[in-house]
Amino acid sequence: MANTGGVNRNHDRSFSQKLTFALIHASIVALCLWLALGAIDWPNPMRARLLAFCAILYWVRHCVTLFVLLKRRVEYAEVFGLCLFMATYEIGFLLLGAGVFADDLSPLDAMDGIAVMLVLLGSYLNTGSELQRWKWKKKPCTKGHCYTEGWSRYSMHINYLGDTVLFIGWAVLATSILAWSIPIFVTAGFVFFHIPALDTYLSKRYGAEFDEYAKKTAKFIPFLY
Length: 225
Known about the structure:
Blueprint: E1 3-4, E2 7-8, H1 15-37, H2 45-69, H3 76-98, H4 110-137, H5 158-174, H6 181-206, H7 208-216
Helix pairs in contact: 1-2, 1-3, 2-3, 2-4, 3-5, 4-5, 5-6, 6-7
């Protein structure tokens, strides 16, 4: 039960791994900033800067997750694997949106405003729901119980839904069909791999309490799935 969904579920501070994770991710974000604000003359400089802002926001949330919310052990293999993936989409989205492969300018418009709202909404659903659970778990009376309150009343994995919404908005900002491979890949990973594995773990940990919660609550998208 310790290893499910490709991660180690045992509680452990693993501070050195988390610090390494945060620092490598910070270097990726720094590269994004250099690309967006440096001497390169992009066809779409404002879009590049907006995409760099998305990377900064994601890094801040990542640090909150690592050093406040995440209680399980983090392995170095997870650190390096996810850093490679983060570099792929954070730098990749920026290059696509900046116009590295584009022949025409892509000025910001109303659709980009919607995309930014999706990025902010997704960030709130993910980190906000996790902070709700973290605060609830700090109460002595909740020890050994399954969290079913806050946004988790509507979706068992509202944090995963938040990341899906975030990546959809991020992909829209990148203005390239290539960018859509990321939200599709991430969502498929949630639905077919992470959610089933996590549900199995939670059922074993909380027993009938979790099973009853699972019967009446959507797994992913409220009121739909």
